[in-house]
Write a structure and sequence with these properties.
Distance between the termini: 14 Å
Largest sheet: 5 strands, mixed
Strand content: 15-25%
Number of helices: 11
Oligomer: single chain
Order of helices and strands: EEEHHEHEHEEEHHHHEHEHHEE
Number of strands: 12
Shape: globular
Strand order of the largest sheet: 3-2-1-4-5
Structural class: alpha/beta
Length: 360
C-alpha cells in the first residue's frame, strides 16, 4: 500500500511517501527563518506558507519516488493537535487529493506519530512506555500497539520544550533556542543544586516546568550580563550558525549545563516512576523535538539500559515535525484496517484527538 503523509501542524510543511511500511521519499520546508524575526511562530504566516508550499512539495515527492498521484492508496494527514489554521490547510489539501484520486483518508494524531517515528528505522516492540517531549507537550503513554495509546501523565502548564524556548529567549539566543542551550552545555559539569527539579515531589506522572523557567528567570535577573546582545545582529552568530564566544562563557555554560540537567533529571524521575507502575513493558520510546537534546537522549538511554529495555529514539532529524512519521503512522493504521471519512475534522491544541476512525 502506498501512503502519502501530510504534515502542517505548526511551522514545518512536509509531504512524504511510505509503501508497505518502507520509507520512500520526503519533501520538507521549514519556516524557522521566517518566524525567527518575531521570536516565535505567527499562526497566520504559518498557514499562508503551508498553502504556498504544499503543491510544490507534493510534486517534488512524487518525482523523488517516481510515482503518480493516481498510485496513492491512502492519504495520512496530521489532524491535530496543532495550530488550527495550519491544520486546516493540510486537511483541505488531503481531502482534495482523495476526492481527485479516490484514495482513502486517515487522520493521524500528531503526538502518536512522533512516538511511532523510531519505527521508520527499526522495529518497535510492544508494549512500550512512550515519553513525548516537544515544544508544547511532555506526555507519558503506555503504547500497547501501534494504534493503542493510554495517556499516563501530561503537561500541566509549560512543557519541556516551552521551558527551553523561554530560557533561550531570556538569554537572547536565536529562535528556536533549544539546540543552542544544548551546544553551550557540552563538556560542562552541571551544578545540580543551581535549579529546582520541577514538580517531582508528588506521586503522579504529570509535568510542570513553569517553576524551573521562573527559577532561571530569577537567576538571570541578578546576572543580566549573561544575556547575549539582540540576536538579529549579524555578528551575534559565528560561521555555521554556532554561537559567538561570550565574555562570560564559563558562567553561561554552567547555567546551560545545569538547566539541561534539571530538565533531563525531571524526565528521568517521572519515567522511572511510570516504569515501576507499568508491568510487561519491553521498550522505552522517547520522541519529539526535545528528544534531540543530547542530555535527554543520554539520560533516557541509560534508564532503558539499566532496566533491560530496548531504547527507541529516532535520529535527531526525525525528532522534529516531519511528514515521514505521519505517513508511517497512517500506514500502520491502514494496515490495521482503519479509515476515516471525508467529514474528518482538524483538532486544535488543547483538545484531545478522538479515536473516531472506523474499520474499512
Amino acid at each position: 500500500m502506498l501512503v502519502l503523509g501530510v504534515e502542517t501542524s505548526c511551522d514545518e510543511t512536509g509531504v512524504a511517501l511510505v509503501r508497505d511500511g518502507r520509507f520512500l521519499a520526503e519533501a520538507l520546508a521549514s519556516q524557522t527563518d521566517i518566524h525567527a524575526v518575531f521570536g516565535g511562530v505567527v499562526p497566520e504566516i504559518a498557514s499562508r506558507e503551508h498553502q504556498r508550499m504544499l503543491p510544490i512539495l507534493f510534486r517534488e515527492v512524487l518525482a523523488k519516488a517516481d510515482v503518480a498521484a493516481a498510485d496513492i492508496d491512502a492519504v495520512a494527514v496530521a489532524r491535530g493537535p496543532g495550530l488550527l489554521g495550519s491544520l486546516l490547510v493540510g486537511m483541505s489539501f488531503a481531502k482534495g487529493l482523495c476526492l481527485a484520486t479516490g484514495a482513502a483518508i486517515i487522520g493521524v494524531d500528531h503526538l502518536h506519530a512522533h512516538l511511532l517515528a523510531p519505527g521508520l528505522e527499526a522495529e518497535l516492540r510492544f508494549p512500550a512506555l512512550g515519553l513525548l517531549v516537544s515544544g508544547g507537550h511532555t506526555h507519558i503513554y503506555r503504547m500497547q500497539s501501534p494504534t493503542e495509546f493510554t495517556l499516563l501523565g501530561r503537561t500541566l502548564d509549560d512543557a519541556a520544550g516551552e521551558a527551553f524556548d523561554k530560557v533561550a529567549k531570556l538569554l537572547n539566543l536565536p529562535y528556536p533556542g533549544g539546540r543552542y542551550l544544548d551546544d553551550l552545555s557540552q563538556g560542562v559539569e552541571p551544578d545540580t543544586a543551581m535549579f529546582p527539579l520541577a514538580y517531582v515531589h508528588n506521586d503522579n506522572l504529570d509535568f510542570s516546568f513553569s517553576g524551573l523557567k521562573t527559577a532561571v528567570a530569577e537567576r538571570l535577573a541578578k546576572r543580566p550580563h549573561l544575556a547575549y546582545p539582540a540576536m538579529h545582529e549579524a555578528d551575534s552568530l559565528a560561521a555555521g550558525g554556532a554561537l559567538a564566544l561570550s565574555a562570560h562563557g564559563e558562567e553561561l555554560a554552567l547555567l546551560a549545563a545545569s538547566f539541561n540537567w534539571a530538565v533531563a533529571e525531571t524526565l528521568r524521575i517521572k519515567v522511572e516512576r511510570a516504569l515501576d507502575r507499568e508491568s510487561g513493558v519491553v521498550a522505552l520510546v522517547v520522541a519529539g523535538g526535545v528528544a534531540a537534546n543530547s542530555h535527554v537522549r543520554a539520560t533516557m538511554t541509560q534508564v532503558a539500559v539499566s532496566r533491560g529495555l530496548a531504547a527507541c529514539l529516532p535520529r535527531p532529524a526525525l525528532c522534529t515535525d516531519n511528514a515521514a512519521m505521519i505517513a508511517h503512522a497512517g500506514s500502520l493504521a491502514c494496515a490495521a484496517g482503519y479509515r476515516h471519512g471525508l467529514d474528518l475534522e482538524s483538532i486544535p491544541r488543547g483538545r484531545a484527538v478522538p479515536r473516531d476512525w472506523v474499520r474499512a
